Amino acid sequence: MATVKINGMTCGHCVSAVTKALTEITGISNVSVNLEKGEATYNEDSPVAIEKIKGVISGIGFEVG
Ligand SMILES: [Cu+2]
Fold it and tell me: Which residues surround ligand 1, an ion (CB under 5 A)?
């Protein structure tokens, strides 16, 4: 289980967008996003570079902190 800080989420739509984007990354499953904590947790079924995650998250308008 890995955890990343996600900055910029303000509502349920943000949570849905982040959850969907992370789930679509190959190797990531079981995504859970916590709005209050500003965190996403997920399982890494195969190694995923943090740069990949940062790129996907910034691509939808948020920032990995
Ligand atoms: Cu939102």
Answer: 10-11, 13-14
